[in-house]
Structure formats: structure tokens, C-alpha cells
Amino acid sequence: MKPIVKSSKLANVAYDIRGPVLDKARQMEEEGQKIIKLNIGNVAAFGLEPPDEIVQDMIRNMPHTAGYTDSKGLFAPRKAVVHYTQQKNVAGVTIDDVYLGNGASELIAMGMNALLNDGDEVLIPSPDYPLYTAVVGLSGGTPVHYLCDESTGWMPDIEHMKSKITPRTKALVVINPNNPTGALYPESVLREIVEVARTHQLIVFADEIYDKTLYDGETHTSISSLADDVLFVTVNGLSKNYRSCGYRSGWMVVSGEKRHAKDYIEGLNMLASLRLCANTPGQLAIQTALGGYQSINDLVAPTGRLCRQRDLAYELLSAIPGVSVVKPKAALYMFPKLDPKIYPIHDDQQFAYDLLSEQKVLIVQGTGFNWATPDHFRIVFLPNSDDLTEAIGRIAKFLEHYRKRHSA
């Protein structure tokens, strides 16, 4: 029989956070081996549960959630999102500008699908969250990466961003707070990005899913609060700030220069209708989450679990010879660098395989985030302190053996 092959649209699509190395880890687990997983920000897997009031609200409402809702979502949670945008100083948002989705990921794909024609270009940070590169390609567009500079705390290189703009550029993506680096962009940098978008009439796609996961008293500025003459498409949700990944509850807000975007918004409405609606129980968690006690503040406080684990991971990684890391100001991740003189890695996926095989620790290699050189990797610092110490100790042991092998 003729083989059935996958679509050519998938030729350049990768998602190494759940890629081949994870497949190897699953195989090892099936064989009875215990793996320490530092590869994904699945917060509930590390004992970080959603606020109880969210869970109780969903349980109470479950008998009434069997029907479809409006394709954009229920009124009350969308109204709660409008109020949230007001708290973030984003002007002019109405309930019609809010779309609820099955997590932010669905809405990111929807936003790109509605916009892109074949060959249209979208500027995406490098390193990136690889979903953006994937969905731009699946939408027929071309992902173009602008550099973020490790020496400046992983800030976007504005001049490099400008140099990548062509007549085919339609939009740029800003991930702030940043995954995978943990960077938090100050208002001055965000204003520079807004000016680039304004000058070249680009749409700004803003990913703010970690906007409450902030350390050391830092504050987050929503880029969409800084202009009303640029079109912004902002995504957020409950998965990280409210430890509710599996509820698949997110939202997308269209704001700014909407007058010239009527046709694009029509496309968003059409795609929202095609998927019928977001899951109803997840929608019902939004109003309670946004209006309730913000327990994330306890976790990121100096004595909070997430802050303590961030500090521990930073200290342990920094103590390994040839390893440097920018201390995250936000989010749940670190993106350490391996000095190429000490660790001459040519294939960082193989490096991740070898670490997994020898030490049973699962990471994601840096090229999985569209970082060009094989000299970085990403970890989550979600495991409790004992497990985190054990995991990074195993990484240190593996790197010690690597140094000895290659120095010999």
C-alpha cells in the first residue's frame, strides 16, 4: 500500500519541550526508572495546586456546564477580563474585544491563523517559546527570529529586530515575562518595541501568561497600555499564575488601533465560531481567579516556595564550572549557558539524551527554543528544594564527567 505521510506543513514544525528526548524518558519510566523532570512548567505535577476557591466554584457549577456557550465565551468571565485590563491600564477594551479559549495556546494559533497569508513574516524572539514558530509556519507564514541579548539580561535587541523587518512583515511577538529566560522587560524597552511597531505598522502579539509570577518586588507593564495607535493582541490565562494548566482556561484581548482591523477581527470571530466555544468549566474559573485572593503573591515573596527555589537553582547552577545563568526576574525557568570552550557541544539534543541516560534528569536543549548555537539548556525550578538539589547535583556530576572526557 502507498504510505500515508504527514502534511508538508509540518516539515519545519518542532516542539522539543515534548519532543524526542521526552519520548526516551517515557520509555525509561516504563522500564521502571525514576526520572527527575525539569522540562516543562506543569505546576500541578510538583504539588503546586490551584486555589481551592477555583476548584470549589468549578465543582458547584459543573452540573450546569454541559451546553455550548457564546463562541467568544460567557459574559461574566469576559467582563472579569475587561476589569483586569483596566487594572493593567489598558484603555478602550470592551467585552466584545475578549475571547476565551482552551488555554492561551489555542488563542495564539487562532490569532495567527486569522492574520497570515502564505509568505507573510512574523518577528519572534530568539530564544522563543516554540509554539510561536510552529503556529506561524502552520498558518502559512514565515517565522523570523530577532535576538535577545544575554549580556543585557536577555532584553530584545531592538536594532536586530529592526534589521529583520521586510515588506512582508506583518507582526511581532513579545513574550514578557519571558519563557525560557525569565526576563522581565522594563517600560523603556517596551516603548522602544511599540515605536518599531508604530513605524512599520505591525501588530504586536503580547504573551503575558506569567504577569503575576514576579520576584524581588518587580512589577509588570502590559505593552498594550503604552499606545492606542498600534493594534495589540494579548494572551493570558490561568495555567501558571493560578496553577491551573489542565483546566485549559485562557483569554485573548484585542486592543489599541482597532478601527483599521475590522476585517481581521471578523476573521477572529469566524475562527472562534468554528471551534464552537471554549470548555465551559474552565471559563467559569476565570472570574473567581481574577477576583479572589492572589495566592501567587505568597509563592513569589522572598520566603515563598517559588522564590526560594529560584534562588537555590541559581546558586547551584552558578557554582558549576563553565556554567553561567542570568537570574530570572519572573516566570518559572532558567536558561543556563555552557561555556563552549569547556563544553564543546555540537549536538545539544544528543547532550540532553546523554544527560537523561546517565543521570535520569530531563531538560530541554537550547536549540529547542530556536536558539542558534548548542550552548544553552532550559530547566524549570518547580521541584521542591530537595528534589531540585538532587537534580542539579546530577547535572553537575554529568558535566564534571563531560569536562574530564573532553579535556582528555
In terms of structural class, how would the helical and strand content be classed? alpha/beta
**Most strands sheet:** 8 strands, mixed
Could you tell me the mean pLDDT? 94
User: Topology as H/E string?
Assistant: HEHHEHEHEEHEHEEEHHHHEEEHEEEH
What is the percentage of strand-forming residues? Answer: 15-25%
Q: Return residue spans where pLDDT drops below 50 for at least 5 consecutive residues.
A: none
| Total beta-strand segments | 15
Please give a structural write-up.
The chain has 408 residues and is of the alpha/beta class. The protein is built from 13 helices and 15 strands. The strands form four sheets. It has an eight-stranded mixed beta sheet with strand order 2-9-8-7-6-3-4-5, with helices on both faces. Strands 11-15-14 form a three-stranded antiparallel beta sheet. Helix 3 packs parallel to helix 9. The protein is globular. The termini are far apart.
How are the secondary structure elements laid out?
Layout: H1 20-30, E1 36-37, H2 52-61, H3 75-87, E2 98-101, H4 103-115, E3 121-126, H5 130-138, E4 142-149, E5 155-156, H6 158-163, E6 169-175, H7 187-200, E7 203-207, E8 231-237, E9 250-256, H8 262-274, H9 280-291, H10 296-300, H11 305-318, E10 323-324, E11 333-334, E12 337-338, H12 348-359, E13 361-362, E14 364-365, E15 377-380, H13 385-407
Parallel strand pairs: 1-13, 3-4, 3-6, 6-7, 7-8
Antiparallel strand pairs: 2-9, 4-5, 8-9, 10-12, 11-15, 14-15
Helix pairs in contact: 2-9, 3-9, 4-5, 4-8, 11-13
